[in-house]
Amino acid sequence: MTTLVQPVNDTKDPIVRDDLALNAPQKPLIMGGGIVGLIVLAYLLATQHISQSLLLGIGLLLGYTLFHARFGFTSAFRRMMAVGNGQAMRSHMLMLAVAVTLFAPILAYGTTLFGGPVAGYVAPLGVSLVVGSFVFGIGMQLGGGCASGTLYAVGGGRSVMFITFIFFIVGATIGAYHLPFWTEEMPAYAPFSLATSTGLGYTGAWLVSLAIFGIIAWVTLVVEKKRNAPKMAPVPSDSGWKRIFRGSWPLFAAAIVLALLNGLTLLTRGQPWGITSAFTLWGSKIASGFGMDVASWGYWQGANAAALEASIFADSTTVLNIGIIIGAFIASAAGGLFKFTKITAGNFAASVIGGLMMGYGARLAFGCNIGAYFGGIASFSLHGYIWGILAMAGTFLALYLRPLFGLSVPKSSDSVC
Q1: pLDDT value of position 411
Q2: Which of 40, 146, 209, 238 could form a disulfide with 369 if both were Cys (CB 3.0 to 4.6 A apart)?
Q3: Among 153, 20, 145, 141, residue whose Cα is nearest residue 82
Q4: Tell me: the pLDDT tens digits for 171-181?
Q5: Do residues 83 and 347 make contact, with C-beta atoms less than 8 angstroms apart?
């Protein structure tokens, strides 16, 4: 019989925490976050296409949803591998099921709300993908959060995640510098789409995708039963309508909202939700400011060259990321949860290493847990499934590395938060 105990206290991890009891709303912080959001919105309306303003709003909703539901990818993979708890993984499958249902007609129609072209994330299959996703899987378990987790943890004030965030950018920049080696000199196969590479079309690919998600959800239930996995501990929440503003939201509800917002992102900018390309842009601009000839890198040739020369506010991924941070900040303040947390030598070192590995891995793997895993699978790309498998393998290895930095690993006798 499994004994439920207090969840492991890991203040390093923005997703797995035991100090989430709601407090009075931090009204000055809420107002401050709102003012910052309005300033950014006004600037975008004055200088950019209207789509950028819409994306800022989508980003705010993404950040709010991620924080309120504590919707994680890092913790979901770790729970599954460590103790066999698949509740969060099943929420992933629901999210993906809703996403492919939205993406199929949008990709088939091929036009955004503003008349531009639409394209999903469909990437090559090669050594770069395998190495990058495996490295990312290790990095997110050491860094304490994935790409989306890092952003919303920064918005929530988790101090050590600022370290992860900084080195995530550094790693993504180094990865961009090295990318031609991995993509041009290492073996690779052409991109493979369940919709366009098989003759199934988007309707057939949609049906196949739903079947895959159902099988994965069923497997998680079998594993849970076999391993007698502990259940996830409930996160404190307000009641009634207040729960909308002062979480916690159910994972399944958040999964549906995230899928809807990703579909809206695709309709607005012609690409799914992404995160890490902006990190590469920010790091490359900083490196250029220090005199490095960033423009000569292979990554910044062709279609990417214009982004390096333009304002970061012209980059739609940057705008989404800013929105996520502000949205998470407002959500944390609404729950009275914004506060800076303790940094130790162990979690500092893990953040540096994890951030570097995630940034580097994301560039090699054509995206992170959002761009490659969520966006890739939702776009019917085989590379998204490969990313998930290899990131899970990296997670398994990281379970043996986390204790070296003083980071916890769930045990079968622990409740899972």
Answers
A1: 65
A2: 146
A3: 141
A4: 999 999 999 99
A5: no
pLDDT in tens, 17-57: 434 567 888 999 999 999 999 999 999 999 999 999 999 99
Whole-number Å distance between alpha carbons of 164 and 141: 11
Q: Rounded to an integer, what is the distance from CA 75 to the centroid of its chain?
A: 12
DSSP 182: I
Closest CA to 134 of 385, 394, 348, 330: 394
H or E, element range at 125 = strand 125-126
Beta-sheet pairing, 188-189 with 125-126: antiparallel
CA 135, 340, 152, 114 dihedral sign is: negative
Nearest Cα neighbor of 368 from 218, 208, 148 is 148
Q: What is the mean pLDDT of residues 79-102?
A: 96
Instruction: Quote the pLDDT of residue 229.
Output: 84
What is the structure's pLDDT at 414? 42
Residue 414 Cα distances to 69, 227, 233, 344, angstroms:
21, 13, 9, 24
Q: Are 89 and 216 in contact (CB under 8 A)?
A: yes
Start-to-end CA span in the chain (Å) = 19
Residue type at position 339: K
Helix (H) / strand (E) containing 266: helix 251-269
> Smallest Cα–Cα separation from 232: which of 22, 82, 370?
82
CA-to-CA separations, 24 to 21, 30, 192, 210, in angstroms, rounded: 10, 12, 50, 42
Six token digits for residue 211? 């079947």
Instruction: Kindly report the pTM of this predicted structure.
Output: 0.92
Beta strands in 346-417 (DSSP E): none
Calculate ∠ Cα 350-356-362, nearest 5°. Answer: 125
The span from the CA of 187 to the CA of 183, in Å, is 8
CB 313 within 8 A of CB 48: yes
The CA–CA distances, whole Å, from 268 to 53, 271, 303, 324, 325 equal 10, 8, 19, 16, 20
- At 20 the pLDDT is 53
pLDDT digits (tens, 9 = 90+) for 354-389: 999 999 999 999 999 999 999 999 999 999 999 999
